[in-house]
Specification:
Strand content: 15-25%
Bound molecules: guanosine-5'-diphosphate, manganese (II) ion
Radius of gyration: 26 Å
Number of strands: 16
CATH class of the largest domain: Alpha Beta
Number of helices: 14
CATH topology of the largest domain: Rossmann fold
CATH architecture of the largest domain: 3-Layer(aba) Sandwich
Structural class: alpha+beta
């Protein structure tokens, strides 16, 4: 599960990590008032307007704008709320922006990268830091991996102060900055564990220029990103409450309501399967025979007839789908339930042009519990589903569906 930057800032603030104050707005009219409040807090007139979407790369896309007046803030808000944001993280169609964060801007002397995540290679949580923070971190990681510091977290004791101090010195912090940076790192590491994160990232963590009151400058978080382990959100009501369904793929949300897992992909073959392992092998074999999966929809173990019917409807409402491969190995899932779901969906499915029934080729491979009953049901319905083909095994199924859309 992902959250917005403004929610991530709230988590950081509650964990004691300094974050500039800000306010969320949803209309252009609210920009001027939000500018004045943020500007009062900043004391410099410098304010930043930032699109709140579940994707990064906003700075380069023009969706993070520094403004110095209420008029500039209004213009920035108008642009962001009336244009879709396209960045390397959004796909070509971009994302609609519904919310903006208007926050006190800060002067920046230096930008750093700081994150906690799980390192699969060492099977530990790890602190990742770099003095090359800001917007190019992916490029740095790729081109100069030595510019990235890594510090493993102890499985029981977490990040320890001596580790954080070493990282702070390696990042080039000096004087009072060291203590501030250490507190940020320790708090972020605690937050990562306490909230069952899979990623807790501050990019950039900034150092502000020296002032009379703060001759060593100040260490602040001005952007943050969190991902949470979906299997653990049940024990974090505060995190669950941050879920924003409008940022999710609508088909994935629809599937979730029926207890189905649906993942949208880019190819032409819709895949209805049971179990994640079977989903992976189904996608592999589709690729092997020359096509790409358009999605995979996992009906899992105990899906009802109604859920299976819904599953078809979700797959077929994806315009990219030129053919459907049903690959079921009945265990807890019964083949006759799947067959009945196919028949229901085929007899009720309403096409965009208003006609009823499947138009695209449908290849069905059933095996396992109640397979004979399932096949008998499908045989009886064959006249009503003219685009349906039975397959003898997985290879036969993949070949048939790929040939049908080629
Ligand atoms: P992202 O591009 O989606 O990661 O958005 P960020 O919030 O990280 O902003 C991108 C860049 O904009 C940062 O790396 C900074 O260089 C700049 N930026 C963002 N907020 C401020 C600010 O308050 N003051 C200044 N001077 N620059 C900012
Ligand atoms: Mn950022």
């Amino acid at each position: 599960m992902k959250i917005h930057e403004y929610q991530a800032r709230e988590l950081l603030r509650n964990a004691g990590i300094p974050v500039p104050p800000g306010q969320v707005i949803e209309t252009i009219d609210d920009a001027a008032g939000a500018y004045r409040r943020a500007s009062d807090a900043a004391g410099t007139g410098l304010v930043v307007v930032k699109a709140q979407v579940h994707a990064g790369g906003r700075g380069k896309a023009g969706f993070v704008k520094l403004v110095k007046s209420a008029d500039e803030a209004t213009e920035a808000a108008r642009f962001m709320l009336t244009h879709r944001m396209i960045s390397p993280q959004t796909g070509a169609e971009g994302l609609e922006v519904k919310k903006l964060l208007v926050a006190a801007g800060v002067e920046i002397a230096k930008e750093f990268y700081l994150a906690i995540t799980t390192d699969r290679a060492t099977r530990r949580n790890v602190l990742i830091a770099s003095r090359e923070g800001g917007v190019e971190i992916e490029k740095i990681a790729h081109e100069r991996p030595d510019a990235i510091l890594k510090e493993p977290l102890h499985p029981l004791m977490g990040l320890q102060e001596h580790q954080a101090r070493r990282v702070a010195f390696d990042l080039g912090f000096a004087g009072k900055q060291v203590g501030q940076a250490v507190r940020v790192m320790l708090s972020l590491a605690r937050l990562f564990l306490a909230k069952d994160c899979s990623l807790a990232e501050i990019n950039p963590l900034v150092l502000t220029p020296p002032t009379r009151e703060q001759p060593d400058g100040q260490v602040l978080a001005i952007d943050a990103k969190f991902n949470f382990d979906d299997n653990a959100t049940f024990r974090h009501d505060d995190i669950s409450a941050m879920f924003d369904p409008t940022e999710e793929n609508p088909a994935e949300m629809r599937a979730r309501r029926f207890g189905l897992s649906y993942i949208a992909l880019d190819g032409a073959i819709g895949c209805l399967v049971n179990g994640a392992g079977l989903a992976m092998s189904t996608m592999d074999i589709v690729k092997l025979h020359g096509q790409e999966p358009a999605n995979f929809l996992d009906v899992g173990g105990g899906a009802s007839e109604e859920a299976v019917t819904e599953a078809f409807s979700i797959i077929l409402s994806d315009r990219r789908v030129k053919g459907v491969l049903v690959n079921i190995f009945g265990g807890i899932m019964r083949c006759d339930v799947i067959a009945q779901g196919i028949i229901n969906a085929a007899t009720n499915f309403k096409n965009p042009d208003g006609s009823i029934g499947f138009k695209v080729p449908l290849v069905v491979r059933l095996e396992g519990t109640n397979v004979e009953a399932g096949r008998t049901l499908l045989k009886g319905a064959r006249a009503r589903i003219p685009t349906m083909h039975a397959a003898t095994d997985l290879t036969d199924a993949a070949k048939k569906v790929c040939a049908a859309v080629a």
